[in-house]
Amino acid sequence: MRFSLVSLTSGLLLSGAAATFQKQCTDADIVEHTGNPAGTIQVIQNVTTYISAPNPLSLRALARRNTAVIYLTDVFGIELLQNKRLADSFAKAGYLTIAPDMLEGEALPTDLNVPGLNLTEYTLRHGPANVDPIVAKAVAYARSRPGITKVAITGYCFGGKYAFRFLSAGRNVDAGFTAHPSLLVDAEITAITKPIGLALAETDTMLTPARRAEMEVLLQATNKPYQVSLYSGTAHGFGVRADITDPEQKFAKEEAFLQAVRWFDNYA
Ligand SMILES: *[C@@H]1O[C@H](CO)[C@@H](O)[C@H](O)[C@H]1NC(C)=O
Ligand SMILES: *[C@@H]1O[C@H](CO)[C@@H](O)[C@H](O)[C@H]1NC(C)=O
After folding, report:
1. What is the arithmetic mean of pLDDT over 34-46?
2. Whose CA is closest to 69, among 45, 34, 93?
3. Is the model's pLDDT at 5 over the cut of 60?
4. Partners of residue 235 on adjacent β-strands
5. Residue 24: pLDDT band by 50, 70, 90 thresholds?
6. Residue from 114, 120, 126 to probe ligand 2 pocket by mutation (most atoms less than 8 Å from CB)
7. Which strand (E) or helix (H) includes residue 150?
8. How far apart are CA 72 and CA 204, in angstroms?
């Protein structure tokens, strides 16, 4: 009798906790729009890296303690507050989050009207030969952390290309997500061996409606799970730099983040 009372009570407690957990998982309030960064800068194998860890006692962290997220920034790098805050949001969702400086200290200012800046030259200098080894170090570091058995990767604009690249065979990454990827070539799409989710902007000169249609055909041909979500009222960059005073953009940024979290919960 006592036993059944105890199990009834703990059952009620557990279902209460589960209900709370469910609610927390889908709440847009996980998304950190303002305030100071919660993570720390560490140097990992010579790579400056922003690391944001979940509260280890949170229900989300308990549920996701085996999975790390590699966060790959846009050209504004880990210095950009919005990148730090979005990485913090993944930590708040329960994931140990690791954002390597893919740009080797050469992040761009958000006002790209820098005299003398040659973007072609810049992206050549920060191409796969330079960036792949940096991302590989972050993946290896994630896997070296106690308890981590799964690695998910999320990338924005510039970083989106590398989210795709690290879903090819032998990269040791389990699932990927990208918002408005740029400079992505066909072979990088067809090479994926793991699930990928995409959040795309309505207005994006780097990823036009025609290119979107081509990408859908290429994704289908991979025979891997994929999701392509198009967000109205958004422009390239919204996954990180949405104008959150615009309700449609704010909603889209939060929804794209929750799309990534749900994707990783399910596929990583
Ligand atoms: C470490 O980084 C510094 C500066 O970024 C560079 O000069 C040096 O060659 C790097 N060392 C290794 C072992 O990669
Ligand atoms: C920018 O860099 C590319 C590649 O190095 C070069 O071909 C091009 O001439 C440069 N453009 C300008 C305006 O300097």
Report:
1. 96
2. 93
3. no
4. 203
5. low
6. 120
7. strand 150-156
8. 19
Residue numbers annotated as active site: 157, 204, 236
Which ligand 2 atom sits nearest the alpha carbon of residue 118? 1
Q: How far is CA 178 from CA 30, 32, 95, 105, 205, in A?
A: 19, 18, 17, 23, 17
Residue 154 and residue 37: Cα distance in Å, rounded? 19
Q: Which two tokens stand for residue 158?
A: 């510039």
Please state the pTM of the whole predicted model. Answer: 0.90
Size (the chain), residues: 268
| Tens-digit pLDDT profile for residues 68-101 | 999 999 999 999 999 999 999 999 999 999 999 9
Instruction: Tell me the CATH class for 32-267.
Output: alpha beta
Give which of 215, 134, 152, 146 is closest to 180, Cα–Cα: 215
Alpha-carbon torsion, ordered 150, 155, 159, 161, to 10 deg:
80
